[in-house]
Structures are given as structure tokens and as C-alpha cells.
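[job 0412] stage=fold_complex status=start
inputs:
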Amino acid sequence: MIAPLLSHIQKYVPLTHEEQEVIAQYVQCLTVKNKQYLFTEGAPCSAQYFVIEGCLRMYFIKENGVEQIIQFGIDNWWISDYTSLTLNKPSQFYLQAVQPSKLFVLKKDKQEALFEHVPKLESYFRRIYQRAYAAAQTRQIYFSDLSGEEKYHHFATRFPDFIQRIPQYMLASYLGFTPEFLSKIRAKK
Amino acid sequence: MIAPLLSHIQKYVPLTHEEQEVIAQYVQCLTVKNKQYLFTEGAPCSAQYFVIEGCLRMYFIKENGVEQIIQFGIDNWWISDYTSLTLNKPSQFYLQAVQPSKLFVLKKDKQEALFEHVPKLESYFRRIYQRAYAAAQTRQIYFSDLSGEEKYHHFATRFPDFIQRIPQYMLASYLGFTPEFLSKIRAKK
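[job 0412] stage=fold_complex status=done
writing structure:
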């Protein structure tokens, strides 16, 4: 069951058999139903989540009441509200399953002890966060320079399977336009 | 000269005297003039930069020819194009000094060797990137939910000294509106 996580870690750092066993003791496996929440706005987020299968969405509710998705979590991705997690502040986001999903949970209060036992995980997470931050920088180009239609085509080209898996209104929310506008773009195609 | 960097690292991880000397051998001090570039679009970015004093801006040029600033680098911040750095791809950004600035440079080709000599720097950079990624997540709320005027006030409240230091057209570019609009907001106040 823990194989996908261990094999993801070993893409970045090699693990001994012992280290693999320690990691297995520190993370929990969690199965969530569609629509189940991992955390909600106002409560502190106390863990990070590695998606084995399924799909999560992280969103906030805008002043006008509209949900704005800022991120999806799919297979082999870590997802969390890192401001809440790092600074112990109430989250400004919701993290919710949008499909039945299987996850690994690394709780904040276990993380430091795990890193002490397996120091090379510092290197693994350093690389994970470096890539996540890199993606966030690049996303700023797409989200401030592309038209709605260009954003859709960019996303569809990079993640062709993924856009088949999620409800269209969620894809529209992530791309920052209405479901009606998305239908128009797709109809054109 | 290296004291500000060492003291920043030691906010996160303690360093022995030996480790401090190793770090001093692996990073270079660099003084840049106002308007000098650290890297430009199309060329790979091969280092990350720690600002001791001064100010840098990272920007890209939009399809319509307008410069869009995505980030400032001020005292005690690391700044780089992490997609270009991580994946050896040509940068999509420009990194330029907007004041005479003093920096430390950690070159990509020295980074792995430095981490081998001082493994606790993995933990330091893990924390640095975790915080940078956290800030990028939170920024998505401000940039997709606040009006131009609200964004200005939010930024002015968080960084009161900083907005006095940079030219107004740059602040406008970062916040995503025109210098004229910024003058109007300030005049109101």
C-alpha cells in the first residue's frame, strides 16, 4: 500500500529497507469519499497529503460567494495549505475530495521526528517544494498573460487525461471563468 | 560580509564554525548597479540570489509588450527562476536590480557539493521553499479576489517601508494596474 509513496521518494533520494519501514510507521493511509473535506476555512491545517489515487481540490470562497479553485491534487502530488501548516494559522482554504480518493497523511506533529529518523527526507521535501514553487512562479505567466481560451488550451495540452476526469464547472473555476464560457470554448473546438 | 547570510541560515538551523567557513567558500559576493541584469529571458538561469541590501525585480514581458513584475527581492530574500534552475530550461523571466544592490550568489553547479559538505542546508532550503510556496498560495487569494485598490492597501499595510523605496510604476506593474490608477488611489488617501 505504501509502495507508490516510497517509489515517489526514491525518484529523488535512495532509501534503505530500514528507512522505508520507518516512513511506513510515520504516515497514515486514508480513504476519503467524494466531497469529503480534509480541512476547511477557519481551522488550522495540521497535515500534508500525498495523493495515491483520486483527486482533491483546494479552493477559497471569494467575497462574492463564488468558489475559486487554486489547485488540484492528483496522483503523486503533495497538497496542503502551507501557510496554515507552517505558521499554525487558521486556513483560508478548503481541501476537498472530488472523487473517492486514497491518500497518505503526514501530520505536522510527526514530521520533525520523521525527519530526525530519516534526514534524507529533508532533501526530498526540499526538491518537492522547490518544484512546487517553480510551478507557482510559472503559473503567474499563464494566469496574467493568457486569455481565457488560451489558458484552457494550455491546460488541456499539458493535462489531457486530467481534464476528462473532473467536472467541467471545477475546471472553469480553476481557470477563472464561468462554466458557460468553458462550454463555448469546447463547442468551438 | 557573509554575516547577514549566516545569521539568516541560523534562524532555521544552527551552524558550527567549520560549516560557516565552508558556506563562505561556496557562495560569491556580488555588487550590482541599478538596472543591471542577473539573467534575461531565453537564457538559462544558473544560480539563486540572496539579497543583502538593495532591491531586485523579476518580471516577464506580456504579449502586448507590457512588463509584468511577479516578484521583488529585498533584504534577506532568496530569489531565482526556479523552473529554469531546476529543469535547465531557458528562463521566461528577467531578474534586474532596481537599486544598487549587494547579493550572495549560490551557483547551481556548486549547490549539490555544498549540500554534501553541509547537509543541514537541505533543511534550511526546505524551510525557505516551503515558506515561499506558502506565500505563493496565499498571494492567489489577494490577486484573484481583491480589487486594485484593496490590493494596494493590503500591500501598503504589509510592507510600508518597501513601497517608499521603489518607483511607483514598478509597484503598479506588480499589482497589475497602470501608474495612473496608482496615482488616483494615493491621491484619494
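[job 0412] summary: The first helix of chain A runs from residue 3 to 9.
[job 0412] exit 0
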